[in-house]
């Protein structure tokens, strides 16, 4: 063998060893991510990108930060990955930047990065489509309809890639489409063995479906395969926490098991900052607010805490408010909002503040924060209801009517929403009259709005209260005794009320009002019937002087 050939072979051997080392190192880092050993994964990626600064290593490093909801850190890593790509052929870091754009609610910038990543794809490629699809599955950037559009593109050439089916399973799981999610996970497991993370996901699906026994056996099956696989213990802990709601008589047993399994999870992740941070999320999801407030306070005070984990302050604020520790919650959330990047604020940050201020009877601040929350998420009908209710309880009936009007236009609007739309307009009318308003157009429009809402509830729900208020509104619109609409509404009110097994004092008082009005209706046309109704009214409210006067006038023939 000549010397040149020996050198060439030697070089190939070195390259082969280096390639194997790189693959193994990247595999180790990704394995640590899969096992939720995030601190270890960060350390491995830091070393890996320092020694082998390839675009691929940077991409998976940045993707770890996306999983941890740390978009700023992710962006810095992706930018290094692009800079390391001399030939500009590795496109996934562009997709990473696009995902960061989605986290920051900049859809146009995201699309521009996705376009750059897909412009010169070869016909057989699909990884770009897969990762753009995944970009829409992270919670801060979630748009699962778009995710599936990209997954469908990836399927053309990537049907045999288990990672595609895992991503699709995760998206279906986020939609609570359990059957579809399990089917995709099973396809992935048919393509590759030993996918413990997929089996854990299936266990979590059974938990979501309240099949706690099947979740337990599935997760214990994972632990039997690998007793050191931390996520299985975390999922098992979450399963036991949720199981307590279905079996309150076993609550103490399941809570103990939950804490034991979560402790094992923390041990297997070296009780790192990241795993302790994830424990806060676990407590939030489990609804253990007392535990969360305590754990979050300790975490924020610990040496490992940094602004990377600032969401811990959000969790502490939520927990304090759920625990009725409103002043602490208000202070914590206001500090969090002041410190965090505005792009990371979500509707619930303001909704929780609104609830805390409302509980403290600071209605103006409650409304202000509810509105901010609604502006961040106009699909949140609960917030819309909170705004309307707070305006109503603070007697700002005109504004309450505006928001109940918005609620009434939603497909899932309830009869309560419609009733309070009428109720708000009814009291707004009363305010206008009490203030001596001369705006007859506004007065009439307010009464008509109340009339429309009460009519809807009365007819659709056959509701006695709606008929009662409808009768009153009809009288205000046309204040004469011989008002047929008033009579019709009071007739229905009487019919529905008398069908009740027992009558409350309020029922009797309202019946007396209805009988009095019906008596007045018949004064000119049927005096005997008028007397009959006035007698019924007086029997229910014997001290009512007006009814006595009406009967006396009838007797006197006036």
From TrEMBL:
Annotated Pfam families: TPR_8
Assigned keywords, A-Z: Signal, TPR repeat
Residue spans of the TPR repeats: 162-195, 512-544
Signal peptide: 1-23
SMART domains in the cross-refs: TPR (SM00028)
InterPro entries cross-referenced by the UniProt entry: TPR-like_helical_dom_sf, TPR_rpt
Name of protein: Tetratricopeptide repeat protein
Organism: Pelobium manganitolerans
């Amino acid at each position: 063998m000549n010397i040149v050939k020996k050198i060439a072979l030697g070089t190939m051997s070195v390259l082969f060893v280096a390639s194997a080392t790189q693959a193994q190192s990247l595999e180790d880092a990704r394995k640590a991510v899969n096992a939720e050993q995030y601190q270890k994964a960060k350390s491995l990626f830091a070393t890996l990108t320092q020694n082998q600064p390839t675009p691929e290593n940077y991409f998976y490093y940045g993707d770890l930060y996306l999983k941890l909801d740390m978009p700023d850190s992710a962006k810095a890593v992706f930018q290094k990955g692009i800079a390391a790509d001399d030939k500009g052929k590795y496109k996934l870091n562009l997709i990473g930047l696009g995902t960061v754009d989605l986290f920051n609610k900049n859809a146009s910038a995201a699309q521009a990065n996705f376009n750059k990543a897909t412009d010169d794809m070869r016909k057989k490629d699909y990884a770009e489509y897969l990762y753009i699809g995944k970009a829409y599955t992270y919670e801060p950037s979630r748009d699962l309809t778009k995710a599936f559009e990209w997954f469908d593109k990836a399927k053309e050439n990537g049907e045999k890639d288990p990672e595609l089916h895992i991503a699709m399973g995760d998206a279906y799981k986020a939609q609570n489409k359990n059957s579809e999610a399990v089917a995709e996970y099973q396809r992935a497991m048919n393509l590759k063995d030993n996918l413990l993370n997929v089996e854990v996901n299936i266990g979590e699906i059974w938990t979501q479906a309240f099949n706690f026994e099947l979740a337990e056996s599935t997760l214990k099956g994972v632990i039997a395969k690998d007793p050191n696989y931390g996520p299985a213990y975390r999922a098992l802990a979450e399963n036991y926490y949720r199981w307590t709601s279905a079996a309150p008589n076993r609550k103490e047993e399941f809570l103990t098991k939950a804490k034991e399994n979560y402790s094992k999870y923390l041990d297997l992740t070296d009780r790192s900052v990241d795993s302790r941070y994830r424990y806060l999320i676990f407590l939030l999801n489990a609804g253990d607010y007392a535990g969360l407030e305590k754990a979050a306070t300790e975490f924020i005070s610990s040496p490992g805490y940094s602004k990377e984990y600032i969401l811990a302050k959000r969790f502490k604020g939520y927990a304090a408010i759920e625990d009725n520790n409103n002043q602490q919650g208000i202070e914590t959330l206001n500090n969090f909002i002041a410190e965090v990047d505005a792009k990371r604020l979500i509707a619930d940050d303001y909704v929780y503040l609104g609830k805390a201020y409302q509980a403290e009877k600071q209605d103006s601040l409650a409304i202000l924060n509810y509105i901010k929350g609604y502006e961040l998420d106009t699909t949140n009908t609960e917030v819309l209801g909170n705004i309307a209710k707070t305006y109503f309880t603070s007697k700002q009936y005109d504004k309450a009517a505006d928001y109940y009007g918005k609620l009434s236009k939603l497909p899932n609007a309830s009869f309560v929403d419609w009733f309070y739309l009428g109720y708000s307009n009814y009291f707004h009318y009363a305010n206008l009259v009490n203030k001596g308003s001369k705006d007859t157009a506004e007065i009439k429009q307010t009464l008509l709005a109340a009339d429309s809402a009460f009519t809807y509830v009365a007819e659709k729900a056959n509701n006695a209260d709606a008929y009662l208020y409808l009768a009153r509104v009809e009288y205000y619109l046309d204040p004469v005794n011989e008002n047929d609409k008033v009579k019709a509404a009071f007739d229905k009110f009487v019919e529905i009320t008398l069908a009740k097994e027992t009558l409350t004092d309020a029922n009797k008082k309202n019946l007396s009002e209805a009988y009095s009005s019906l008596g007045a209706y018949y004064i000119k046309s049927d005096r005997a019937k008028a007397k009959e109704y006035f007698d019924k009214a007086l029997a229910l409210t014997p001290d009512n002087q007006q009814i006595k006067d009406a009967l006396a006038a009838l007797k006197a023939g006036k």
